[in-house]
Structure formats: C-alpha cells, structure tokens
C-alpha cells in the first residue's frame, strides 16, 4: 500500500466518522439557544387540516424510525459496504424529505393551498386540503411539481376535506 492510498483511506475514514458523529448527535444541541430566543416572540397558529397534520406526523415518525435503524447500522456494522449503503440511504432519505418540504411550500406560495407531499422513488402523492375536486387545479399542480424534476414522475393528486 503506497502513501497516497494510505492518506486517502485515512481522510475518508475521518470524514465518515465525523459524519456518523454528526448524525448521532441529538438535534436539540444545535437548536437550543435559537429555540429559546424565538419561542418567546412567536404565536403559533395551526390552520392546516387535521388530516394533513396527521399525515405529516405519521411521515415524520416513519422517517425517524428508518433514520434510527440506519444510524444503528452505521454504528454497529463491521462491514464497510453495509455502512456505506446505510449512509447513502440516509442521505437519500434526507434529500427526499427536503424536497417534500420544498414542494409543499412551493404549492403554498403559488396556489395558496395547504398540501402534504410524499415522495417514494418515482411516485409522488400530493394530498390537498380542499372541499371540492378541481381537475384544472390538479393539472396545474402536476405541471408545477413535474417542473422540479428532470425525469418523468408519477404524480397523484388527492383532495381531502
């Protein structure tokens, strides 16, 4: 093994260890001072449909449990391939969650509607808080969401009252 390979492996291992350490840290460490200062001045008014809130809570619980399993696999596994695949799955999960949040805010800004979006590979399910079904709105939503992706996605619109 030459020096260049040894340096590469050393730096890669260091980056991987720091990444795992960052992932396993409790999230309240980073938000503690920010939450304390913001919570004093903010009134929270929940206007979302109860169904959308329930869907968000369910999604967050599911994502948290999958993330915990992946983090445990990263920490406990001795096989480097298993650790790498778990780390990649964790990154994909974070990217999908970020994209869901971004699309929800985009629909709120463009169409002034409350929505819940769940992305599962090429399938996207959009749940809209609306009393009546509107085909024109559904088509506009599909076009708006599809514009955010390079490849064709299967987008489903559900209307919930």
Q: How would you summarize what this structure contains?
A:
This protein has 161 residues and is of the alpha+beta class. 65% of the residues lie in helices and 12% in strands.
Question: Would you mind describing this structure in some detail?
Answer:
The radius of gyration is 20 Å and the shape is elongated. The protein has a 3-stranded mixed beta sheet, sandwiched between helices. A hairpin with a 2-residue loop joins strand 1 (115-120) and strand 2 (123-129). The termini are far apart. It has helices at residues 3-24, 28-39, 50-76, 80-111, 135-146, and strands at 115-120, 123-129, 154-160. Helix 3 runs antiparallel to helix 4 (80-111). The protein is built from 5 helices and 3 strands, in the order ααααββαβ. The chain is an alpha+beta fold.
Radius of gyration: 20 Å
- Kindly report the oligomeric state of this protein: single chain
Distance between the termini: 64 Å
Largest sheet: 3 strands, mixed
Q: What key attributes describe this structure?
A:
161 residues; alpha+beta; three-stranded mixed sheet; elongated
């Amino acid at each position: 093994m030459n020096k260049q390979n040894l340096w590469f492996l050393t730096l890669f291992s260091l980056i991987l260890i720091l990444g795992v350490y960052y992932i396993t840290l409790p999230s309240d460490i980073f938000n503690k001072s920010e939450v304390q200062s913001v919570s004093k001045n903010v009134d929270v008014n929940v206007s979302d449909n109860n169904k959308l809130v329930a869907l968000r809570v369910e999604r967050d619980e599911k994502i948290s449990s999958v993330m915990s399993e992946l983090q445990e696999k990263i920490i406990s596994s001795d096989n480097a391939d298993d650790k790498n695949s778990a780390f990649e799955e964790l990154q994909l999960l974070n990217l999908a969650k970020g994209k869901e949040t971004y699309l929800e805010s985009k629909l709120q800004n463009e169409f002034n509607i409350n929505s819940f979006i769940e992305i599962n590979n090429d399938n996207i399910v959009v749940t809209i808080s609306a009393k009546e079904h509107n085909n024109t709105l559904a088509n506009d939503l599909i076009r708006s969401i599809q514009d955010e992706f390079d490849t064709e996605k299967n987008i489903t619109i559900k209307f919930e009252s």
